[in-house]
Design goal:
Length: 158
């Protein structure tokens, strides 16, 4: 929460790397990492609003990874738009920022690892697609592409 100190390995690593980027005078890296840490802070503040779906719930490592993944996707989309507009300097900036942030993401799960998670969920909850897909998406969030997880669940449930 905003007033509550929650320790996160990812956030600690980001903050340490911001200090390192400041010492190295690497403005692009510093800005990208600051935006990521700021996104975490804004989400913590948003969770103090009683209308928020995760009201008073602390930000988890999975939440932080999902937010980082979202920021990477935003930068990739921005790079694509800049590419269409012929703004090569901005394409390079957005692409570099996405690569910087991607280094903080956990390794992506292989299809076999996703299948193992899904088969465990099927064993626990049965072959109900809606139940299994929801749980599988939560368990693989940030570590596997949602579309691919859905394909594997659909294949294993049917």
């Amino acid at each position: 929460m905003a007033g509550q100190e929650t320790t996160s390995a990812l956030e600690t690593r980001l903050r340490d790397d911001i200090r390192e980027a400041q010492r190295a005078h690497d403005q692009l890296r510093m800005d990208a990492l600051r935006l990521a840490v700021n996104a975490f802070h804004l989400e913590e503040v948003a969770r103090t609003d009683k209308d928020h779906k995760a009201f008073r719930q602390p930000l988890t490592e999975t939440d932080r990874i999902a937010m980082l993944d979202k920021q990477i996707k935003q930068r990739e989309e921005a790079a694509a738009l800049y590419r269409q507009a012929g703004r090569t300097e901005l394409v390079e900036k957005e692409t570099r920022e996405a690569e910087l942030l991607r280094a903080y993401m956990p390794a992506k799960m292989t299809d076999d690892e996703v299948r193992a998670v899904v088969s465990g969920l099927i064993a626990q909850h049965g072959k109900v697609f809606n139940v299994v897909i929801k749980l599988a998406q939560q368990e693989t969030k940030g570590r596997a592409e949602g579309k691919r997880v859905a394909e594997i669940v659909r294949e294993m449930v049917s």
